[in-house]
């Protein structure tokens, strides 16, 4: 069983650069063909200062900040046990290529169901840009299959 | 294209659906690299089998990215206030993913007009994601 004393644990904040090439690769990988997400000129013509990050990019920063392997190891679990149960995003401001985003992750809850056969790890994450603006929040629910 | 107007949309309206090409191993390899989710269960069949699966499974977040595209095809991204989903079933190699959104509520919050959408993603077998979004409309 995962140690429930880890509820409230705050991981060390990590600051990550948002790279234009990464955003182009992300757009390709999700089948996004709108040039606003892959062509900086098209983005500027649409009124953006640089390539915008698509809505679920925030989760990619979350995983970059604390690698999934490191996360499951922290809880004493294995990657093969991990399932993604729920994902929530709240958006406050856009993220653009060239930004530097600080990711703050904390453990919001840990609980189990089915006599411990399934354990749940809920994390809450804040994303703050180089100007100190909180651009997004996520709530991530992982399921551990025992 | 400008966003639809709050006054012109109604509860029950469906937004234009998004249907993807069948998911291939290549799709998952690209998403693995681009997303930073390097869990081998999505790209390494040997690892997937050791984990009790018959084959690799698609990243749930890839389907959620498709829900994001469903929304940004309909409104500008700056209008999206919230996006959330539950992952209700696995998406497998060869699955086409169909994403749908329907307006279920019109309301005013934080001084702006907003609509709540019910979102779903489906594989040819079943619903794979069940979610909601909140969109601000003028």
Spell out the key features of this protein:
heterodimer; A: 146 residues; alpha+beta; Thiol Ester Dehydrase, Chain A; 5 strands; B: 138 residues; 5-stranded antiparallel sheet; 3 helices; 23% helix
What is the fold's blueprint, element by element?
The complex is a heterodimer of chains A (146) and B (138).
Chain A: E1 14-17, H1 20-29, H2 40-45, H3 57-65, H4 68-74, E2 82-91, E3 100-113, E4 118-128, E5 134-145
Antiparallel strand pairs in A: 1-3, 2-5, 3-4, 4-5
Chain B: E1 14-19, H1 25-35, H2 45-50, H3 60-74, E2 80-87, E3 98-109, E4 112-122, E5 127-136
Antiparallel strand pairs in B: 1-3, 2-5, 3-4, 4-5
Task: Describe this structure as you would to a colleague.
The complex is a heterodimer of chains A (146) and B (138). With 146 residues, chain A is α+β, with helices and mostly antiparallel strands. Chain A has 4 helices and 5 strands; from the N terminus they run βααααββββ. In chain A, strands 1-3-4-5-2 form a 5-stranded antiparallel beta sheet, covered by helices on one side. With 138 residues, chain B is α+β, with helices and mostly antiparallel strands. Chain B has one domain (6-136): Thiol Ester Dehydrase, Chain A, CATH 3.10.129. Chain B has helices at 25-35, 45-50, 60-74; strands at residues 14-19, 80-87, 98-109, 112-122, 127-136. Chain B has a 5-stranded antiparallel beta sheet with strand order 1-3-4-5-2, covered by helices on one side.
């Amino acid at each position: 069983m995962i140690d429930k004393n880890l509820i409230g644990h705050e991981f060390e904040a990590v600051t990550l650069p948002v790279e234009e090439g990464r955003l182009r690769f992300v757009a390709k990988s999700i089948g996004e063909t709108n040039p606003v997400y892959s062509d900086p000129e098209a983005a500027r013509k649409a009124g953006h200062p640089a390539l915008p990050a698509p809505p679920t990019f925030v989760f990619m920063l979350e995983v970059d900040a604390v690698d999934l392997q490191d996360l499951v190891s922290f809880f004493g679990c294995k990657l093969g046990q991990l399932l993604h149960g729920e994902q929530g995003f709240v958006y406050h401001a856009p993220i653009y290529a060239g930004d530097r985003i600080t990711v703050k992750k904390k453990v919001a809850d840990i609980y189990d169901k089915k006599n411990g056969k399934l354990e749940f790890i809920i994390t809450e994450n804040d994303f703050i840009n180089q100007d100190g603006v909180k651009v997004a929040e996520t709530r991530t629910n992982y399921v551990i299959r025992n | 294209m400008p966003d639809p107007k709050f006054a012109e949309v109604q509860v029950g309206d469906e937004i234009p659906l998004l249907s993807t090409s069948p998911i291939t191993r290549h799709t998952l390899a690209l998403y693995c690299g681009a997303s930073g989710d390097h869990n081998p269960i999505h790209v390494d069949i040997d690892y997937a089998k050791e984990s009790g699966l018959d084959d690799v499974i698609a990243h749930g977040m890839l389907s959620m990215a498709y829900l994001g595209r469903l929304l940004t095809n309909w409104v500008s991204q700056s209008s999206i206030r919230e996006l959330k989903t539950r992952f209700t079933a696995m998406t497998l190699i060869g699955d086409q993913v169909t994403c749908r959104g329907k307006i279920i509520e019109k309301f005013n919050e934080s001084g702006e007009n907003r609509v709540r959408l019910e979102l779903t993603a489906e594989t040819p077998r079943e619903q794979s994601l069940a979610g909601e979004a909140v969109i601000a409309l003028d």
